[in-house]
Amino acid sequence: MIEPTLALQTAIRTALVSAPAVVALVDPSNIRSGSSRPENLPAIMIPNGTTVMHGRAANGQYVAGVFLDLHVWAVEDGLDRAKAIGAAVAQTLIDWPDGVGFAFDDFKHTRTVWPRDPDPAYGHGVLSVEAVIRWSI
Questions:
Q1: Cβ within 8 Å of residue 134, ≥6 positions away
Q2: How far does CA 98 lie from the centroid of its chain?
Q3: Which residue blocks in the chain are alpha helix, DSSP H?
Q4: For range 85-95, the mean pLDDT
Q5: Cis peptide leading into 38, omega within 30 of 0?
Q6: Which pTM was predicted?
């Protein structure tokens, strides 16, 4: 059995660490799960998401909507650096990542926001991703 948010986190991380444009800006070890501002920057944090179960599909499969926010953090060049990283992430996620143990019925990067951090030296962006996934147990 898969846990849908973990499966999507893994697929996205795999896509990002395989993307030359992303790893040119962020060390792959700094692309990871987590929910707070990381110590090592720049970084991309993929916190826990939300799953909305849609029920069963043909052949005993399960279907769910999964929602994740990816947090981009930078301190060198602040917001400009964070926006460059966000652009590389968005370009990578134009293509659906490979699902291991599940299939995508839909995948999209839906929005990006740039909230102001209390410390103006930091750049912070949030890229929201939605997917509909299908799997068998």
A1: 57, 61, 62, 63, 102, 103, 104, 105
A2: 13
A3: 4-17, 20-23, 78-92
A4: 97
A5: no
A6: 0.94
